[in-house]
Amino acid sequence: MISREKHDRMANAIRFLSMDAVEKANSGHPGLPMGAADVATVLFSRFMNFDPKNPLWPDRDRFVLSAGHGSMLLYSLLYLTGYEDITIEDIKQFRQLGSKTAGHPEYGHISGIETTTGPLGQGVSNAVGMAIAERKLSEEFGSDLQNHHTYALVGDGCLMEGISQEAIALAGHLKLNKLIVFWDNNSITIDGAVSLSDSTDQIARFKSVNWNTISVDGHDPDAIAAAIEAAHLSDKPTLIACKTVIGFGAPNKQGTHKVHGSPLGAEEIAAARKSLNWDAEAFSVPADVLDAWRLAGLRSTKVRMEWEDRLGATANETRAEFVRRFAGDLPGDFDSTIDAFKKKVAANNPTVATRKASEDVLEIINGLLPETLGGSADLTPSNNTKTTQMQAITPADFSGRYLHYGIREHAMAAAMNGIALHGGLIPYAGGFLIFSDYCRPSVRLAALMGIRVIHVWTHDSIGVGEDGPTHQPVEHLAALRAIPNLLVFRPADETETAECWQLALKEKHRPSGLALTRQNLAPARKEYEEKNLCAYGAYELVSSSDAQVTIFASGSEVEIALKANEMLQQRGIASRVVSVPCVELFMGQPDDYRAAIIGTSPVKIAVEAAVREGWDAIIGSDGIFIGMKSFGASGPAKELYKHFGITAEAVVESAEKRLS
Amino acid sequence: MISREKHDRMANAIRFLSMDAVEKANSGHPGLPMGAADVATVLFSRFMNFDPKNPLWPDRDRFVLSAGHGSMLLYSLLYLTGYEDITIEDIKQFRQLGSKTAGHPEYGHISGIETTTGPLGQGVSNAVGMAIAERKLSEEFGSDLQNHHTYALVGDGCLMEGISQEAIALAGHLKLNKLIVFWDNNSITIDGAVSLSDSTDQIARFKSVNWNTISVDGHDPDAIAAAIEAAHLSDKPTLIACKTVIGFGAPNKQGTHKVHGSPLGAEEIAAARKSLNWDAEAFSVPADVLDAWRLAGLRSTKVRMEWEDRLGATANETRAEFVRRFAGDLPGDFDSTIDAFKKKVAANNPTVATRKASEDVLEIINGLLPETLGGSADLTPSNNTKTTQMQAITPADFSGRYLHYGIREHAMAAAMNGIALHGGLIPYAGGFLIFSDYCRPSVRLAALMGIRVIHVWTHDSIGVGEDGPTHQPVEHLAALRAIPNLLVFRPADETETAECWQLALKEKHRPSGLALTRQNLAPARKEYEEKNLCAYGAYELVSSSDAQVTIFASGSEVEIALKANEMLQQRGIASRVVSVPCVELFMGQPDDYRAAIIGTSPVKIAVEAAVREGWDAIIGSDGIFIGMKSFGASGPAKELYKHFGITAEAVVESAEKRLS
To answer: DSSP 3-state assignment of B429?
Structure first.
């Protein structure tokens, strides 16, 4: 049992490390670490199951600092509890170029950082995903191997953001009772008092979405501990509302927005040292306090070793599967299975929408990969994401593999990030491409973290038809391609769809999105080819050694390119066609491959039912672009293509005009 | 008083027009119009103050169909009540190319469409903005000129979306008691029952954010009427939860997701005709029913004429101001005021961050334009959006001109759309550029609608510094430039900032965003120039008739371009510098201007602390780009610029290398 005095000193260690680091960096957020230090100390010294020496232990409790600006709270905890990849020197380098202790916690920098946070509302939504993963894996592998809690710390900012409200509603619906959220209720935001902009009764709001709620004094360790104990017994997720004082311990500034995001200044820090009775130097933690923290870090060693024993005693096959799943490796026969599917496709050459092609591929994938967790933001019949293996997960039964995320694109994307970060599962889910805008912040974070999350974005152009411009993506391909480290696939037929899925699944450290059509497409590739040609990003579909014209196209417009090519041949104009299923992969090819594919034909044309932005890199700023210059319109898809001039005839006409 | 029988027939007219139009289009959503017909009939026949002959009457009640897929509900209402710009022929052309009756209601197509809806959650958030505008203008011009209600109809989809939850919390906080939201509580979504994905107690949730709530049978006209009457007396916004049957009247399909988004089929429509005792042909409305509806359309004529009288009796100056404000015209001395400011700036040539420059410009603008309504998503001290004229709006006092929107970027953007759509005010508000991702769907809708909404996006690059990659936009300029009809300004100094603000405010039919720096910038333009040079999108800052090198740059990188230019001159290399404050405006210039600005120097270099995408159109695919190829990092801004190689030295080196 930790005495109150010891607790206070342990919490104060967090406070001073945070004050000192922010002061040295002359930048950062001391308010949250100081205010939430008591909550964090209780959690990490009495409850969290974690092992700093084995930070990736699959059954560890997860802790997500959703209010990522309070990063010094997390860095302090990781250093104090003895994570080996963070030292006091790292803390001194807070917010400096190249340091592990970035302004906001970044996944991959230190092993105890479970997710990158900072953009508000994301972390708590990741935590919902982690809790989903835990429950699902516990159902699958048993509570001997998966039985942990997920904790998140949120501020008012997180709770005001719509994404968190989506995620919280989903968690309440699914009764994720091992999810515990601490609300750092300090009544302060950057602009001033929370009351400037909000009057929400958070307790009532959480109750309305099926949460258990507990309110405590966030500076009373025993009350916090009692709340956590009570939360552990709940059959619902729990909100622990912790009334705190932001910047607790800074005698003149605490409780105001002045401590939120600025260094306290030497004078105030000196005053805090006095008021908290702390005489250690900056960055120095008294031995008794460090010892107490290191002991806290050793607390779960036994629990972890017992878990190792249970894993060791697990049947070989199950154990191997569990280990494989957490390593993120695909089964050995993955490639050959996709290959066999490609052969079958080449034998039939179906004319299908790529969303349907994707369903066919997923049918194979989901049969082979028990780790896929599918879903849709209430567009299941349109996204074609639910294959025969996929039964719906319900609050009472997590044996299914399909999540009805509801009309919550943003929380879905963030939850998928959490599922991927948790390990053991590969999340994919569907939405309309237009609604990628609703979840962009989470897609970006997946790219920044480098995690395997797969978005199925159907209805990817004016091919949507009658629903009109509100539902027709025009700028989305360009906007998504602009995100570093994200792969945007736009396959042209069933074969390319299979190849793109294969690539997306094999990318352990990059998220992907597949842009798929609503409308049927004729096959672009009719012959079986062992190589995954989409892996090149762009490749020749039709060659010509002396081409006057090269037509580049992606997805649904490859059909148009092929037709235009035929028409050009008929008119005696030599031309070639390049399919471009993934611009990012193409840009990553060696210079000579890129040069060969771009080629030297005097006329270069790109066809894509979207804006031109980005295509100049391939066709040159003098290249011809056949695509969209404006928003779309409501009408039958075929008429729209004509109306906007995205036709084989337009391609041919522009080529002839340029050549004449 | 409308008898129950008459009511039923009026509601059934909506139902059959909707069924018939969807059937003819073979596409669309009959479920909502049929289920919500009773609610809409009560509202439009008994309560709404509107005048189909004067559809833009400034004090009309606003009606927003947030569940935009139910567009036939709105089209039916507009046709039946006698709007002159919609005929039965238009209804027959539902969802056809070029028709006014698009798949989703589109602002500008028919005068009674108050906003474009379809992407869920947007409409209700627009409605919050409209209610803010009404309250603000009522405070300013008195209730004689502004005193109307704002009604919105939402479905479960709208309520699950995070944006609506942000907007609802804001509305409750501000006590927008003239906002009344009908929830079409039909328990069905596309995937099936709402219970598949949600367990929210909506009544409790609305109560938790300070709303008045009423539950009614959505097919009982008197109960609906009583609820609206009660709502009118509330001092809070009101949710009227209307329990409805989706597809009401389709005997075999109603109450299921089968009626949501597909034609009913001839057989089911015939059955509905029988069950609802409706013997009129398709698209034919019996004379008694049409008469009743047209009478409903005339209901508010007297109210409108009384309003006209009051406007006529208003003091000349106030009346002229009111009329000017609703026409969206700027005061006559706007240009000269900006011009005078530019002179002052040229006399001082301050070194300032453009976010601070923006504050200086806003100080002038807000002094001149009483119609600006400022705000920020809780980043007021960082966005510099609050000038001396701006006092905060509070729930009790709307005399201020500044809204603390809270940490709700998405609802803020959508509310700004609603404020602009309402008329009489010009909304602007601040956020970090990185968080433009959080509000992209609303920014897109502003662009699609062509409305004057101005986003102040500060902290626009790695210049953010220590906060790191989660807060450093890299792809956002490219992603925003990809949106058609949106102007993205990135001024380089205080003079350009003034010019960009001038342009943004003069664009009555386009939204704008200003990307502004956190860090100080040396002035790029030192001489006063009467012309607004930013209006060209790009222009020469430094000329050279025989330039070997042209350097293009925007915003903070203009400083780097100018320094590189000097270094090149010193090395005897002739070079010129082009400032590119607005790519979209530049692309819209005549070909000869564009060609002249791009020029013919053998080496073209673009410098922008962002991804390359889009720049090839100016520098060519063989041009040199000095910018970002990855996400940013945490560290002091100056070090980051060096680390990522965005320096004058790098520009010079690359130029020399290319020339050698």
So the answer is: strand
What is the Cα–Cα distance from B319 to B145, expressed in whole angstroms?
Answer: 9
Residues A628 and A611: beta-carbon distance below 8 Å: yes
Asked if B582 contacts B503 with a C-beta cutoff of 8 angstroms, the reply is yes
d(CA A158, CA A36): 15
CA A656 to chain CA centroid, Å, is 46
Tokens 């997805």, residue located: A555
What is the distance between the alpha carbons of residues B530 and A401, in angstroms, rounded to a whole number? 65
- Quick one: what percent of chain B has pLDDT higher than 90? 100
For residue A514, the cross-strand partners are A456, A489
d(C-alpha B210, C-alpha A330), whole Å: 50
Q: How far, in Å, CA of B494 to CA of B514, rounded?
A: 13
Provide the terminal-to-terminal Cα distance of chain A, rounded to the nearest Å.
Answer: 88
Test A438 with B119 for CB contact under 8 angstroms: yes
Q: How many CA atoms within 13 Å lie on the side-chain side of A638? A: 2
ipTM of predicted assembly, 2 dp? 0.98
Q: How far apart are the first and last CA of chain B?
A: 88
Distance of CA A210 to the CA centre of its chain: 25
Do the Cβ atoms of A209 and B207 come within 8 Å?
Answer: no
Residue B169 and residue B159: Cα distance in Å, rounded?
Answer: 12
Fold designation for A4-304: Rossmann fold (3.40.50)
Asked: is B334-521 a CATH 3.30.1780.10 domain? The reply is: no
Whether A4-304 shares its CATH topology with A334-521 is answered yes
Q: Is A411 helix (H, G, I), strand (E, B) or coil?
A: helix
Instruction: Report the C-alpha gap between A350 and B431 in whole angstroms.
Output: 48
How far is the C-alpha of B5 from the C-alpha of A151, rounded, in Å?
57
CA neighbor of A384 nearest in space, from A350, A430, A453, A426:
A430
Give the integer Cα–Cα distance in Å for A512 and A443: 9
Query: Looking at chain B, which residue has its C-alpha nearest residue A159?
Result: B407
- CATH code reported for the domain at B534-659: 3.40.50.920
Rounded Cα gap, residues B325 and B140, in angstroms: 12
pLDDT, tens digit (0-9, with 9 covering 90-100), for A444-480:
999 999 999 999 999 999 999 999 999 999 999 999 9
Beta bridge partners of residue B397, listed in sequence order = B394
| Catalytic annotation, pick one of B23, B321, B371, B409 | B409
Decide if B209 touches A, using CB distance below 8 A: yes
pLDDT digits (tens, 9 = 90+) for B144-199: 999 999 999 999 999 999 999 999 999 999 999 999 999 999 999 999 999 999 99
CA nearest neighbour of A625 among A635, A634, A614: A614
Q: Give the CA angle between residues A331, A335, A340 to the nearest 5°.
A: 120
3-state secondary structure B286-334: CHHHHHHHHHHHHCCHHHHHHHHHHHHHCCHHHHHHHHHHHHCCCCCCH
Give domain limits for chain B: 4-304, 334-521, 534-659
Give tens-digit pLDDT for B510-530: 999 999 999 999 999 999 999
Contact of B183 with B202, CB cutoff 8 Å: yes
Active-site annotation holds for B114: no
Measured CA angle at A136 (ends A135, A141), to 5 deg: 100
Q: Under an 8 A CB cutoff, do A475 and B483 touch? A: yes
Contacts 24+ apart (CB under 8 A), A274-279: A275/A249, A275/A251, A276/A12, A276/A15, A276/A16, A276/A249, A278/A12, A278/A16
Token pair 């299921």 is found at B256
What count of other Cβ atoms lies within 10 Å of the Cβ of residue B3? 10
Q: Which residues of A199-214 are buried (b: 16+ CB within 10 A; e: fewer)?
A: bbebbebbbbbbbbbb
What local confidence, expressed as pLDDT, does residue A630 receive? 98
A382 contact B CB<8A: yes
A 312-341 → B contacts, CB under 8 A? none
